[in-house]
Amino acid sequence: MGDRETSNHSEVTDFILVGFRVCPALHILLFLLFLLVYAMILLGNLGMMVIVMTDPRLNTPMYFFLGNLSFVDLFYSSVIAPKAMINFWSESKSISYAGCVTQLFLFALFIVTEGFLLAVMAYDRFIAICNPLLYSVQMSTHLCVQLVAGSYFCGCISSVLQTSMTFTLSFCASRTIDHFYCDDRPLQRISCSDLYIHKMVSFFLCSIIILPTIIVIIVSYIYIVSTVLKIRSTEGRKKVFSTCSSHLGVVSVLYGAIIFMYFIPDRFPELSKVASLCYTLVTPMLNPLIYSLRNKDVKEALRKILGEKIFLFNSILTENRVK
């Protein structure tokens, strides 16, 4: 029996990504929707990274973390969106075995890194609001680099474990993945291996990643809220809540979708696809919008960059007219 499973496992050279089960006429609409959202992700996150790197006023821990968040959002959405858009036009909708492994590995790496980065950002806001006089000392450049590097390291370790564990399964039941990208749960559905240990280890991995980060975020915001309520100035309270509500909005969308996807029993594949859209495309699109539209410093930096570009463009036009 073991030899047969190994043989069947070795025969799998590619998978078929079913995607969304809609009539063919809607594929064009979905393609255009994915294209629009992905274009906004590229524009918003690249723009945020450029603003953070070029404006000296944004050379602070908060914007250092925000720049890394934009980098992570840009890359993990790029792991998913282009292939999904290609499959709207593809007859075979296939992805190679190596491509599936790579997609799962990179997605797991960046999504876990994002979770830790959001926890780091909550801790940063806690120090800034609750201990403002010690902020520059406690949130040193060295510590900020360590926190970001630690987030990537945790993402990498988790991804290696999750990917290696998933692709030791035997896929002799089918090679058709009922999803729009390679993910652990849809791959479990087409495996003919005993999934008990795999599911226990996956649940344990999700728990040790999600629970500590949520605890850090919740505890940080309990202290933040208690400190804000002591502020007598209405304007001061409004400013702090404006900054923190942006972060909380991002956390709520991301963690809500992930908890639904990985902790709720896997009975509704189509709902799982919709939940996946929230953290693969919606969150990366909303992050730069939320942080820029509700952030005075980012808006001023954007105006400065746009002003310089417009001035340069006008200068070039003037020179051409003179010639």
TrEMBL record:
InterPro entries noted in UniProt: GPCR_Rhodpsn (IPR000276), GPCR_Rhodpsn_7TM (IPR017452), Olfact_rcpt (IPR000725)
A Pfam family the protein falls into: 7tm_4
Spans through the membrane: 28-51, 63-81, 101-123, 143-161, 201-224, 245-265, 271-293
Cellular component terms per the entry's GO annotation: plasma membrane
Gene3D superfamilies on file: Rhodopsin 7-helix transmembrane proteins
Organism superkingdom: Eukaryota
Signal peptide: none
Compartments where located: Cell membrane
Record keywords, A-Z: Cell membrane, G-protein coupled receptor, Membrane, Olfaction, Receptor, Sensory transduction, Transducer, Transmembrane, Transmembrane helix
Domain G-protein coupled receptors family 1 profile: 44-291
Similarity section: Belongs to the G-protein coupled receptor 1 family.
Protein name: Olfactory receptor
